[in-house]
Amino acid sequence: MPLLVFVVIVFGVPMLVLLGGTFTKEGAFSTANLTESLQGAYLTALLGSVKISALVAVLGGVLGTFLAQAVVTSRFRTLREAVLTASGVLANFGGVPLAFAWIATLGNSGVVTTTLGLGQHGWSLYNFWGLTLVYLYFSIPLQVLTVVPALDGLRPQWREAAQNNGASTWQFWRYVGIPVLTPALLGGVVLLFGGAFSAYATAQAMVGSTVPLVTLKIADALTGNVLIGHENVALALSLDMIVVAGLVMAVYLPLQRRSARWLR
Amino acid sequence: MNGARVEFRGLRRRFGSTVALDGLDLTVEPGELIALLGPSGCGKTTALRCLAGFEQPDEGEVLVDGADITRVPANRRDAGMVFQSYSLFPNLNARDNVSFGMRVRKAPTAKRHARAQELLELVGLPSVGERYPHQLSGGQQQRVALARALALEPRVLLLDEPLSALDAKVRVTLREEIRRLQLSLGITTIFVTHDQEEALSMADRVAVLRDGRLEQVADPATLYDRPATPFVAEFVGAMNHLTGLVSGDRVTVLGQTLPVEGRAPDTAQVDVLVRPEAVLVTPVDASGAEGDGIVMVSSFRGSTARLRVHLGDGTEVLADVPGHDSARFAPGTAVRVGLVERPVLVSARSETGAATAVPEPDVV
Amino acid sequence: MASLTPQVTTQVATGTAPARGGRPRRPRVWRGVVLVLAAVYFLVPLIASFVFTVEVPNQGFSLDAYGQIFSAEGFGGSLLLSLGLGVATIVLVLLLTLPAAVAVRLGAPRLRPVLEVVCTLPLVVPPITFVAGISTVLRWGPDYLATTPLYQTMIAVQNPDFPVVLVLAYVVLALPFAYRSLDAGLGAIDVRTLSEAARNLGASWPHVLLRVIIPNMRSAMASASFLTLALVLGEFTIARLLSFETFPNWIYRISGSQAQVSVAVSVFSLLITWLLLLALSSAGARQRSGS
């Protein structure tokens, strides 16, 4: 199949080179790059990325679920359609334009900042929390999109069967509703983590390098902003990222499969 | 376990502009299996859900053994329910599904498991306790759902079209088993279905509903032989509508004059309602006289064959002949058509009622 | 266990049962609060961005920023480059995925897991690590391949007027989305029966693909194309790190000197992307109601 050949060349070769480069230092096999990528400023960046991604995933997961439940239980079909379409659009809204929209809103000379005089109260968008706020902008809609099908899949018969067996509303949620939804909810959270973890454009356009993130560090190293002889550290950092992202997928896929089976 | 008496009194329920229940009155005797039969939208499911507590009637009350339970929340009613399909909790295995009600009531684990096993054996599935719903066939799922409905020893068992999502074969075995179980437990059971064959074969009595009202409640034989209204006649079994002329208490149809069952209407021209098995057909041999009609279609059903006969005046008649005779009635055969000598039902001609045979419903 | 009913009945008689109208009210308030908060959070940045672009200090309302977009240096070039890359990517990704998706459904279902994995990989591997690999390959190229014809190829794909290397990279990024929409489209039309029916009526294989499958796949192909185009138009990471000035990179570059124009372009490009996606989702809805 031509597709497979294409992927092997265009995708496989860079990945092999990346792997090779990671374990090469001054022409010989070495784990020095990998070790270095897990130390000092690099480690801080990696942990920073994990920290912000985890925070965005949990917050986005919880808030997105509430929004999804509000929409699903609403009787207005148009509201539901509107929110779902908007979510589809917003979940794809990332990169540079997203950063600029927020800078224009809550940046140092942003419209809301100046209108409310937030500047005098020490407000700044260009830090960890500001970035979290911005990441949530595409993460919450993504969670809505993941969770709505699961909420729709909760059959009314289950609630009625539970009542019929003497269960209260709380007991229904505890023994049936929440367990049934858990794979979908966790699956969504894992996706959000992955999205925030690999985001680069928004962070670059917004905070430059004031918040330590692994994607920013890799970009720095690739654009030559690194000591001679340490170029391959970027490759090692990339490998670290792939390992983390791979773990995330390894968690996500089984959850997704189970959810699909239950909510068939 | 003893059965309870269930009474619906003047039950009314509307959803927006549609009236689901329009003053339903029905009493179900203790230990009886009653089938609620009717086309979709006739209110049969709504009636069941009012009894289970998932719907609140706008007017009227539901009584169980004389006690008004209309305002009792669904989780405090003493009625086990089996749903149409997919009602098993997907995150629990069969055993935990069956023992769900006992878990809610904080029964000790060992006792729960023993009871669940007992119930699974009762429904003929002793070894599926560890399996999850998606690992069970449709028929097995409904058996587990039945076990779950019986787990709390309810005084009423509610079945909401529990067989309609199953294959024809499984449907027949399972309905026989439900009936056997119901008889041995003596539990009052209300069975909602749109399948007349199911209703007639299982129930002690069948209640036919139409537009939220009771049309007739009777045992299956009475319902079939003496339908109280044209709707019931139409809905239960296949029925021919033939044009007849009434004079006194007799009616002339297809050249025969037969007594009228019940009271004859005032109009002279009437619809005469005749079951296919009450239509007599005989082939006209090559030498013989002219026939009344020609066989258009013959469908073989084993013990009988059902013929669609085109009469000279353009009407069509359904007629049943013994299966082993079907070879004599191949399509194209000219036949003579008559009726069995016995009282027939007549009804005033409905405005729309052209005297043609009904589109063939399910086998009875 | 057998008779809970009487007990409950007395409870009802003493009037402790909740009034029927009272219960649904609480969730309604809760739902309203959630929806209002969500609306504020999602709408304010959009409105604020617009206000930011039309409000000139000391002058009040003005649409100048939007007018300046078109005269700004580099606008046309970068936009055309991005559109060109988008079209090339769409063509290539469809040429690669459509036959593969059809083949997997008809001829080689055993290859399906392989294809699924291949099409999930780009989701697992963050774009920035992908570009790290690519740039290393491109950097090493001259050292190792200088004497071979491959070297010429390496130079050619990096032509700044039309960087083929970006097309190749974007095809990889677009694979998961394209494959999924095509596979969903194929699933909806039952290719096997359709193609067997066509073969039975005497059609040749190319004929089946061109006259039977593709016409029935129009909306799935359109959705794959739209998603790919949206992806290419918004892609920043790879283009920036390989130093090609695509549209998003141009926005980023001018943000330093012309903040207002850059936000205006952001709003503008957002609108375009949204229109694309809205067209896509409404086309999808029509398709569903049609079948």
Key features of this structure:
heterotrimer; B: 364 residues; alpha+beta; Rossmann fold; OB fold (Dihydrolipoamide Acetyltransferase, E2P); 2 domains; six-stranded mixed β-sheet; five-stranded antiparallel β-sheet; 9 helices; 20 strands; C: 291 residues; mainly alpha; MetI-like fold; two-stranded antiparallel sheet; 14 helices; 1% strand; disordered N terminus
What is the CATH T-level topology of the largest domain in chain B? Answer: Rossmann fold
Q: Roughly what fraction of the amino acids of chain A lie in strands?
A: under 5%
Fourth-level CATH superfamily of the largest domain in chain B: P-loop containing nucleotide triphosphate hydrolases
**Please, how many helices of chain A?**
12
Q: Name the beta content range of chain B.
A: 25-35%
Number of strands of chain A: 2
Radius of gyration of chain A: 22 Å
Pfam families (chain B): ABC_tran, TOBE_2
Organism (chain B): Microbispora rosea
Protein name (chain B): ABC-type quaternary amine transporter
Keywords (chain B): ATP-binding, Nucleotide-binding, Transport
Can you walk me through this structure?
The complex is a heterotrimer of chains A (264), B (364) and C (291). Chain A is an all-alpha fold. Chain A has one domain (41-262): MetI-like (MetI-like fold, Orthogonal Bundle). Chain A has helices at residues 2-22, 32-37, 40-72, 77-91, 95-106, 111-116, 128-153, 156-164, 169-198, 201-207, 214-222, 232-262, and strands spanning 24-25, 28-29. In chain A, strands 1-2 form a two-stranded antiparallel sheet. In chain A, a hairpin with a 2-residue loop joins β1 (24-25) and β2 (28-29). The radius of gyration of chain A is 22 Å and the shape is globular. Chain B has 364 residues and is an alpha+beta fold. Chain B has 2 domains: 6-230, 3-Layer(aba) Sandwich (Rossmann fold), CATH 3.40.50; 239-348, OB fold (Dihydrolipoamide Acetyltransferase, E2P) (Beta Barrel). Chain B has 9 helices and 20 strands. In chain B, α4 (109-122) crosses α5. Chain B is elongated. Residues 351-364 of chain B have low confidence and may be disordered. Chain C is an all-alpha fold and 291 residues long. Chain C has one domain (72-290): MetI-like (MetI-like fold, Orthogonal Bundle), CATH 1.10.3720. Chain C is built from 14 helices and 2 strands; from the N terminus they run ααββαααααααααααα. In chain C, α3 crosses α14 and α5 (112-124) packs across α8. Chains in contact: A-B, A-C, B-C. Chain A: This is Putative spermidine/putrescine transport system permease protein. Chain A: Belongs to the binding-protein-dependent transport system permease family. CysTW subfamily. Chain A: Its main location: membrane. Chain A: The chain crosses the membrane at residues 40-71, 83-106, 126-151, 172-197, 233-255. Chain A: Residues 46-252 form the ABC transmembrane type-1 domain.
